[in-house]
């Protein structure tokens, strides 16, 4: 069962600290992570009782040699060609997980688009604009933050583009 709480003070993960410092309104959702679940994102949606089209996963890809963050609904997949196009690149592949973890400062399944060790260029699937709020990883497995898509875009400098597919 997901626990819901308002976050009003500094502390927690680098993602929640970044949100608090920016004065951005957000809600933290926590749940007991099951290591046996086949999908981190689907598990989050189920545990929080939120539609999978409002829960977004953070993926790290290599676009022409530069690590790039893609934020797409957990209900779908990332279109690598569309991601490359969105940032003016030619070719995208999924990044090496160890490189993604090392660069962002987060572990796989808990990578947040917020509060990264090195802020990577970010692309948010444009379907996010169809929701008043979306959920993204708060920086560890079993912890999500809910915020307005416009706030996520502003804090990460994200580009909105159609990079997800069902």
Query: What amount of the residues lies in strands?
Result: 25-35%
Please tell me how large the radius of gyration is.
Answer: 14 Å
Dominant shape: globular
The averaged pLDDT comes out at: 91
What can you see in these coordinates?
This protein has about 170 residues and is of the alpha+beta class. The protein is about 25% helix and about 30% strand. It is built from 5 helices and 11 strands. The chain has helices at about 15-20, 40-50, 80-85, 95-105, 150-155; strands spanning about 5, 25-30, 55-65, 65-75, 75-80, 90-95, 120-125, 135-140, 145, 160, 165. A 5-stranded mixed β-sheet has the order 6-3-4-7-10. A 4-stranded antiparallel β-sheet has the order 1-2-9-8. β8 (about 135-140) and β9 (about 145) form a beta hairpin. The protein starts with a strand and ends with a strand. Residues about 1-10 have low confidence and may be disordered.
List keywords for this structure.
alpha+beta, 5-stranded mixed β-sheet, 4-stranded antiparallel β-sheet, 5 helices, 25% helix, 31% strand, globular, disordered N terminus
Q: Mind sketching the topology for me?
A:
Elements: E1 3-6, H1 14-22, E2 27-30, H2 40-48, E3 56-63, E4 66-73, E5 77-78, H3 80-86, E6 92-94, H4 97-104, E7 121-125, E8 134-140, E9 143-147, H5 149-156, E10 159-161, E11 164-165
Parallel strand pairs: 4-7, 7-10
Antiparallel strand pairs: 1-2, 2-9, 3-4, 3-6, 5-11, 8-9
């Amino acid at each position: 069962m997901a626990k819901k709480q308002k976050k009003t003070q500094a502390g927690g993960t680098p993602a929640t600290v970044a949100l608090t410092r920016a004065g951005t309104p957000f809600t933290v959702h926590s749940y007991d992570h099951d290591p046996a679940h086949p999908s981190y994102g689907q598990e989050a949606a189920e545990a929080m009782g939120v539609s999978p089209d409002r829960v977004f996963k953070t993926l790290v890809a290599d676009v022409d040699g530069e690590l790039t963050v893609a934020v797409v609904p957990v209900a779908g997949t990332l279109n690598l060609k569309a991601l490359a196009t969105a940032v003016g690149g030619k070719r995208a592949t999924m990044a090496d997980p160890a490189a993604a973890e090392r660069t962002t400062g987060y572990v796989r399944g808990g990578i947040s688009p917020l509060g990264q060790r090195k802020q990577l260029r970010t692309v948010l699937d444009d379907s996010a604009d169809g929701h008043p709020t979306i959920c993204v990883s708060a920086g560890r497995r079993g912890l999500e933050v809910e915020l307005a898509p416009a706030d996520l875009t502003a804090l990460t400098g994200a580009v909105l583009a159609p990079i997800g597919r069902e």
